[in-house]
């Protein structure tokens, strides 16, 4: 069986831009070709698949991944220079997605009931609900629930937007410098619950 080398012999520099699965392999290829390299990693992968942060690693999964890539490079004898670029695909997103499902359900039901009872308007015999100030819902949170949302890099507004099947969050500008947000029960969700 003949080995094929897809990298020409006269290559003296490898560039890995958004290489995903190839990121940890670029330093190995560069070491074998005795050339320098540059990697701009994005999605974290190790040699076997999706990279999972190691136990006891502090910081984000991406920080842990960068440490892993650096360790690979150093073991191969490279002097590592690092510059942290702001890459949109690695932007930290506020999401509240790691709140336990049971807690999400309890909070969603609590807010749903409050908004639904906020108006006496009926449509075909069904209560339509209304809109409510975000600050009113915030008063319904316990301290531990507030802390839980903060630990998830989000807040009440983020939580409600994640429950977009149930709630609509409306931006209402009263003054040029003040913006209020009013969550309401999503019409499509009301139609589903009525059927």
Automatic annotation (TrEMBL):
Domain of life where this protein originates: Eukaryota
Reactions that this protein is recorded to catalyse: uridine(44) in tRNA(Ser) + S-adenosyl-L-methionine = 2'-O-methyluridine(44) in tRNA(Ser) + S-adenosyl-L-homocysteine + H(+)
Alphabetized UniProt keyword annotations: Cytoplasm, Methyltransferase, S-adenosyl-L-methionine, Transferase, tRNA processing
One biological process term in Gene Ontology: tRNA methylation
Enzyme Commission code(s) on record: 2.1.1.211
A cellular component annotation (GO) from this entry: cytoplasm
Endoplasmic reticulum recorded as keyword: no
Any one Gene Ontology molecular-function term assigned to this protein's record: tRNA(Ser) (uridine(44)-2'-O-)-methyltransferase activity
Subcellular location field: Cytoplasm
Entry similarity comment: Belongs to the TRM44 family.
Role: Adenosyl-L-methionine (AdoMet)-dependent tRNA (uracil-O(2)-)-methyltransferase.
Protein name per Swiss-Prot or TrEMBL: tRNA (uracil-O(2)-)-methyltransferase
Gene source species: Necator americanus (Human hookworm)
Origin organism lineage: Eukaryota, Metazoa, Ecdysozoa, Nematoda, Chromadorea
């Amino acid at each position: 069986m003949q080995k094929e080398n897809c990298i020409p012999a006269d290559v003296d520099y490898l560039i890995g831009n958004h290489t995903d699965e190839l990121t940890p392999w670029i330093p190995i290829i560069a070491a074998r070709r005795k050339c320098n390299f540059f990697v701009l990693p994005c999605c974290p992968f190790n040699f076997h698949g999706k990279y999972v942060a190691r136990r006891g690693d502090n910081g984000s999964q991406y920080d842990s991944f960068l440490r892993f890539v650096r360790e690979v490079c150093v073991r191969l004898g490279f002097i590592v220079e690092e510059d942290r670029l702001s890459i949109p695909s690695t932007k930290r997103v506020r999401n509240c997605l790691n709140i336990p499902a049971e807690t999400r359900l309890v909070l969603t039901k609590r807010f749903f009931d409050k908004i639904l009872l906020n108006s006496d308007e009926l449509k075909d015999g069904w209560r339509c609900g209304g809109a409510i100030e975000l600050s009113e819902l915030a008063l319904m949170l316990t301290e531990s629930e507030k802390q839980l949302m903060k630990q998830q890099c989000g807040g009440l507004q983020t939580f409600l937007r994640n429950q977009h099947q149930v709630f609509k969050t409306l931006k209402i500008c009263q003054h040029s410098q003040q913006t209020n947000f009013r969550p309401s029960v999503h019409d499509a969700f009301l139609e589903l619950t009525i059927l």
